[in-house]
Amino acid sequence: MAPLLTIQDLHASGHEGAGILRGVTLTVAPGELHALMGPNGSGKSTLANVLMGNPGYEVTSGSVNFKGVDLAGLGPDDRSVQGLFLGFQYPEEIPGVTMINFLRRAISARKDFDISVLEVRLALIEWMQRLGMDAKLADRYLNQGFSGGEKKRNEILQMALLEPDLAILDETDSGLDIDALKTVAAGVEAVRSERPEMAVLLITHYQRILKYLAPDVVHVLVDGRIVASGGMDLVEQLERDGYEGFREPAGADV
After folding, report:
1. Is residue 60 domain-resident?
2. CATH code of residue 221
3. How many Cβ atoms are within 10 Å of 102's Cβ, its own excluded?
4. Which of 2, 29, 42, 100 is least enclosed, having the fewest CB within 10 Å?
5. How many domains does the chain have?
6. What separation in angstroms does the CA of 65 have from each of 28, 75, 144, 228?
7. For 91-114, what is the HEC assignment?
8. CA-wise closest residue to 37 among 193, 174, 176
9. Which of 67, 73, 75, 78 is nearest to 2 (CA)?
10. Considering the domain boundaries, does residue 115 fall inside one?
11. What mean pLDDT, rounded, does the chain reach?
12. Is residue 118 part of a domain?
């Protein structure tokens, strides 16, 4: 099976020109769930933003290939239309734009044809019920006044309706209590069951969500590099020993 996403020796810097990613190489096949774990400042969210074409980050070398297309030069909108989706760690509030209107425009752009408000509302209500969300939120401004759990569930709702080929979930589990965590994880699994070819890159600090979402591969990202890949045994090692054992010795050649 041809890879869906291929990242090759990716280097990227942030707003002030400091290097954050220092040679990330990663391959994701259709239908796979990859968990990317690492401490604060390791480059996890930077990788997510670089994959989505955030202009605040600069790729200095390396490549990202998605569905056979080199993503260099494509902006966030084009990448979304191609089938990439980013679930934000801190979802933005957008006053003046209702949830249903936001989704109608986003889905129409993704599918390249206008979808009716009725079609969106029917799909929206179905998924809101599955995610334990109040249907009244559909007519409120996007994320405005939503609780932290509602915002995270709204990210999964958007993923379900936009039907991406690769969903990047950036610390979707952060700030959730155990009930909300189970609901979000169940929502991800429900989307995957309906769209088995969809791949997921799940970015997280902790193993708790991995009790509900079993990854095919676990990667450890430290100091801008993937330093280890494996299965759940790697997660257990992290929980036992922490990330320090994966750091390069001071003065190591980079």
Report:
1. no
2. 3.40.50.300
3. 16
4. 2
5. 1
6. 11, 14, 35, 22
7. CCCEEEEEHHHHHHHHHHHHHCCC
8. 174
9. 67
10. yes
11. 91
12. yes
Q: State yes or no: pLDDT of 221 exceeds 50.
A: yes
pLDDT > 80? residue 252: no
From 34, 42, 48, select the one nearest 231 (Cα to Cα): 34
- Residue 238: phi and psi, rounded to 5, are -65, -45
β 217-222/225-230 pair status: antiparallel
Q: Which residues contact 157 (CB under 8 A, 6 or more apart)?
A: 124, 127, 128, 131, 133, 187
Distance CA 55, CA 15 (A): 9
The model's confidence at residue 249, banded by pLDDT at 50, 70 and 90, is low
What CA–CA distances, in Å, run from 235 to 4, 148, 206, 229, 238?
24, 26, 9, 10, 5
Please name which of 127, 179, 137, 189 lies closest in space to residue 158, comparing C-alpha atoms.
127
Provide the 3-class DSSP secondary structure of residue 90: coil
Two tokens at 239?
A: 């929980």
Structure tokens at 188: 């991800």
For residue 158, how many C-alpha atoms fall within 13 Å in the half-sphere facing its CB?
29
Rg of the chain's alpha carbons, rounded to an integer? 18
Rounded CA-CA distance 65/132 in Å is 36
Per DSSP bridges, beta strands 166-170 and 33-37 are: unpaired
**Structural domain that includes position 117:** 32-37+75-242
Residue 26, domain member (yes or no): no
Q: How many Cβ atoms are within 10 Å of 176's Cβ, its own excluded?
A: 20
Q: DSSP 3-state helix, strand, coil percentages of the chain (rounded to 5)?
A: 40, 25, 35
Of 63, 62, 45, which is closest to residue 54 (Cα–Cα)?
45
